[in-house]
Predict the 3D structure of the following.
Amino acid sequence: MIRNLPESWDLEVDLVSIGSGIGGLSSAITAHDEGLSTVVLERSEQVGGVTALSQGQVWISGNHLARDMGIEDSSDSGFRYLQRLAMGYGEEEAMLNLTVHARVALKYFEEKAGLRMNVIRGCPDYYYGLTNDSVSEGRLLEVEPFPGPSLGEEWQPKTRLSPQVPYGLTTQDIADKGGLAAMMHWDFELLARRITEDERCAGSGLAAYFVKAALDRGIPLQTGVSVEQLIGDGERIVGVRATKDGKDFFVRANKGVVIAVSSYERNQNLERTLGNQLDPESMLFSAIDGSNIRLAGPFGAKVARVPEISMAGFSVPGEETDEGLPVWRSAMPIIGLPHHIVVNSTGKRFGNEGFYRSFYYQTDVIDGVTQTHPNFPCWIIIDSQAREKYAFVSIMPGQDWPEGLGVVADTVEELASKAGINAEGLAETVARFNENAEKGVDPDFGRGEQPWGAWMTGDKNQKPNPNLGPLVKPPFYAVRMSRMGATGIPAAGLKIDRNANV
């Protein structure tokens, strides 16, 4: 164990939480409730972490909210479900801890921290119908709208909002109006009111609940503080060295340090070495750069690996974050819609666009003969029906197509030529897809047959298949996608024991 004690400490507490997402905040809150002194150190100028950028959906099997609605489920069933999905990669003690304690944590934060969550009605497990112990609804939860003004004048603007997620609506609000596909039918009056009154849903709301609970307890939330090094006394970790206002800031931790940061999406070197990705883009802010590995590595921490999780998406020219970075958007909400397909450079489809959990893995496939990625680069292909009926993420029907976003052409063959796709292959793919879409079937990849995909990415008004519709109306559009990190879910992280100790 390294011994690198400073001459003096600038602050002394029992527990230091690094990061202000739900992990860092919940650890600080529970430690405080047990009588410990705590501090949360956040590198960026806003709190809420990656949690605030997300959809904010929480998966908890056997929870009391579902039980109170008469939905039968158990933590044992949830554990068996995770076992099957892990396929040997998951550690059983960790999965058991999750399924047993998540429902206890939910109850605790409801009673002690004012958290308010609801079951997302009708939302199935990802693999419902494909494996035993999956359920049709009850495990996926989301927060009730959170009143932003209750954070106070200082922390309301300092609690992060998502530039990608419509945080003024719950998933249930969206589902009740037809889902992601039916954006034109959403309750925009409700959305406008919530944004005006700063009522936060999704991940922005989830993060805000925990920020408020920390503030109510008087837990110091220090922003603009970058933890650069863990401090050891030769036997254990006893604190951190951070930089604050350009100077070293030493914080002693009498009981422990919680490293509540995980991803490395803004660190290109770690993306290449740990994530096996070449220059992926990211929806995250610049502080998400793998500091967990940098901090714990010198103390002998081990790195745990899982199969790579990647996504694909695009940026709309002119859209920027508050850091001046391009706003990268996941293609997941749109590629499973009718009149949309995704093809590789040969013009061929390669997966079920309506179920991203399997589709994105296909972009990482390597051809053993050619030693290439046959399915990357890839393009979203749509026709004018799609433009008239659906939003292209942030581009509304009737809105001018942004200059510089992909290519547009009057024929499929011309579109392929402009985009750099094999024209014959694309024409054949579109013809086959159209013929089957008219019948409501996808014999190649089963699009629309998977319940979660149909519920989340389909158009409930599209018959007979919510995920299928032909591409026949010109002009046609092609948008090349870029690789993206999985929004804070890395392929590698610090190996922990059953109690989350590194």
Summary: The two ends are 13 Å apart (CA to CA). The first strand starts at residue 11 and ends at 18.
